[in-house]
Amino acid sequence: MKPTKFHIAILIFILFSCRTKSGSDKISIVQIRTHPDTSVKSIQFSLLDTLIVNTKDTFTYNHRTFRILKHSQSKDVEIQYWENNKWKDNIQVHVYDQFETDFDVNKDGYKDIFSQAQGFNYVNFYIPSKRLFSEQFQLFADDEIVVDSVRKIYANYREAYHACNNYSSQLFDYKNSTPHYYYLLTGETECEMGNIKTIKLYKHDNINDSLILLSSFKSKDTSNLDYEKYWKKNYKRLMGYHQHGVLCKLGFTE
Asked: What DSSP state is assigned to residue 7?
């Protein structure tokens, strides 16, 4: 059956009625690459496209449907989830150089929301107990090593990207799916790129969101912060594992 003038008029009325609150701002779906199990494909639609193809702004993960909305004049995207027959807000995500939903950053078997820029990863971790995504965490991104595979202790690393930046590495693990930092090792250049003058060890005070300086010493290799060697040599002492082993031998712990 050919569309009549009445059908065309109704379609035009619907399309022009579906505008944003401002009447001018468009909402588009950010271009993403997703986990193979989800329904989202690489897409980038205008508001009109979204109205016509209204299922491609969503993805289903762990039996919950999410959608990703992006205001065209901002680098922020909004993650919402469907519950009790309506969309609810989960988290606002600031997008940097790219936007990914297929990285298991914390290696817990669940995919996280990921972006990166200049040696930093920006991650919204999936929290399985809540079936939602966390706030955005900033992590050093130039390297990550496993320090202790049994206890699941890791160390990351970030280069000095500018003259007055430091070379930096953190010792950490994951608690409740999000990173928990213990120590920070820095190679301080005093604004001379590639020339490490001093190495400093800090302890993370996670309660007060601050750093406590523990030691400072001269670097034997002024061109390289050998964080892997340092952590593997010292992490047991720093984490108290040596003391725990001694107490076990004496019968004071289980």
From this structure: H
